[in-house]
Design a protein that fits this description.
The complex is a heterodimer. By secondary structure, chain A is mainly α. Helices cover 71% and strands 3% of the residues of chain A. Chain A is built from 20 helices and three strands. In chain A, a hairpin with a 2-residue loop joins strand 1 and strand 2. In chain A, helix 3 packs antiparallel against helix 9, helix 3 runs parallel beside helix 12 and helix 10 runs antiparallel to helix 11. Chain A starts with 6 loop residues before the first helix and ends with a helix. Chain B is an all-alpha fold. Chain B folds into two domains: 33 residues; 36 residues. Chain B contains two helices and one strand. The longest helix of chain B is centred in the C-terminal third of the chain and has 24 residues. The radius of gyration of chain B is 21 Å and the shape is flat. The two termini of chain B are 42 Å apart. The chains are: A mainly alpha, B mainly alpha. At the A-B interface, helix 10, helix 13, helix 15, helix 18 and strand 3 of A face helix 1, helix 2 and strand 1 of B.
Chain lengths: 563, 93
Amino acid sequence: MIGEISPGLILIVGALFVPLFKGQIRSAFLLLLPILAFLHLLGLPHGELGQIQFLGLDLVTLRVDKLSLLFGYIFLIAVFLGVIYALHVNDTIQHVAALIYAGSAIGAVFAGDLMTLFVYWEGTTIASVFLIWASRTEKAYAAGLRYLVVQVFSGVLLLAGALLMQRETGSIAFGSMRLESAATWLIFIAFGFKCAFPLLHNWLQDSYPEATVTGTVMLSAFTTKLAVYALARGFAGTELLIPIGTVMTAFPIFYAVIENDLRRVLSYSLNNQLGFMVVGIGIGTELAINGAAAHAFCHIIYKALLFMSMGAVLYRVGTVKGSELGGLYKSMPWTASFCVVGAASISAFPLFSGFISKSLIMSAAMDGGYFWTWVVLLFASAGVFHHSGIKIPYFAFFGHDSGKRCAEALPNMLIAMAIAAALCIGLGVYPKPLYDILPYAVDYVPYTFEHVVTQLQLLIFSALAFAVLMRTGLYPPELRSTNLDSDWLYRRAGYSAATALGRFSAALWQSFTQSAASATSRLLAGLRDHHGLDSALARAWPTGNMALWMTVMLAAYLMLSIF
Amino acid sequence: MASKKRKPRKTTPRRARYWLDDPRNVDRLVYGLYAVCAVLIVLDFFMERHSPFAIEHLFGFYGIFGFVACVGLVLAAKELRKAIMRPEKYYDR
């Protein structure tokens, strides 16, 4: 039985002991946990393990197969990188929250039933919000609350779907589903929130840039990729995902171009990258699912690397606003170089990791004959290079020299970035180890002459477009601003509606209490008039009156009996 | 684009000159970019195409698409600013 515990639990239980240690022992302990979990993972046999009965439900707490293993591996790599990057942090809460968060995400990946999934799903929510609140600013607090509301709502939908499923089918097994009942729709939308589907997306761009320097690196890895895993597990081949994913790849890049906060730019491009995976899951062929899984794997590493580099800038300079930065390569040459590696990877340059994973999805779209999807994905690929590949390094490290001079990033940050950069290049140059662990057998050669040249043409001409726009002054400058997105609906419209409703109901209540008070006083006055001292009903009546009325009634009776 | 310079950190004097500080070198970089573009277009002649989509078989399709897509993206985003851009403190009531 002990061999059947989820690797996620190792991190979660381990996290509880973190506060007991200090200094270097704590650092060693933090690093040891993901390594232990990884070794445990390597020793696990395939199959449905850790089966327990709970409240009459059959739970499968540890399902090990190729898909869950792939996400297990990459999540543990991400924890390891995130822990190294955060070793300098003294804030115990952040370490504990990060480990519980990552552990929950890993637990969720190995969940074989919807109840177990739900428990870990909520675990990721509750633990991760502390990484946002740990910034300890008012903005972060508010963003964290909004994040929490959306995430908990997603969990509630998942629970409702699971319970409905239990009633309909008698089983809560988490397997392939079809969108044909209320239960599966609820689960689908729950996944959609966490995966940042269009219009359900804005919690991501709202909260991630407010988290701590190290917290955002952790956040970028788990929540959304857990949702990608869940979609791949539950809804592979669901056609609806293709248009959803296609829209996801395209619309965030417009925002990314004009956004000033560079960590928010990365959040928009994170959203766009998820779109590629969602399209892959929607196409649902073996090649496409392999592509989605491989892209999630590579994406976690290069996205973490990019967030690390921007985190290092935030840590040293105190801001990541494009309008304030520039020329930092002079102060932070190593960080700048690692950032460029991450940028090349997300842009899918040949010999970098994004190239060998995104190609699978593009080829799957091509093979399936999804022409317009393919066109949009191609547009999004050029756009990614433009805003993540060029804009991020250009405005932070090159471009106009802001005159800001600072120290290079901390050694532990540089080590984490170096490992991530090495993985990006390693996977790009030699993709076989990744291809070997994909869910289906891979028969794909990314490096063909045609493929390399066309991809380079796409990217280099995009760079040409940037250069031309820059030199002609057409490129929009970075401006300090807020760009409205769907969060406007609840932060402004919803807020105004709620306050208006509040004012209206207050006015309604006031007029109700006022009219009630005046009605009561009128009633009291009436009572006083009729029953008070000297009022008509309180007067003593003479007996003559009585005799008179008796006569009247007798007369009436007489009249009635005559007719 | 990454600089290969290894100059002192922390207290870099304002006067320190880097390779990229010279506008002529920036020009050289851009000319280099033009040259790479030209080479990539020439490579188009030597490429066998396998795509099922006819549009992809047009000469220089990827280059033209990349350039047009990016210019379109940036100009569209610039217009988008008119509709959605607000002051930085918009939400801070």
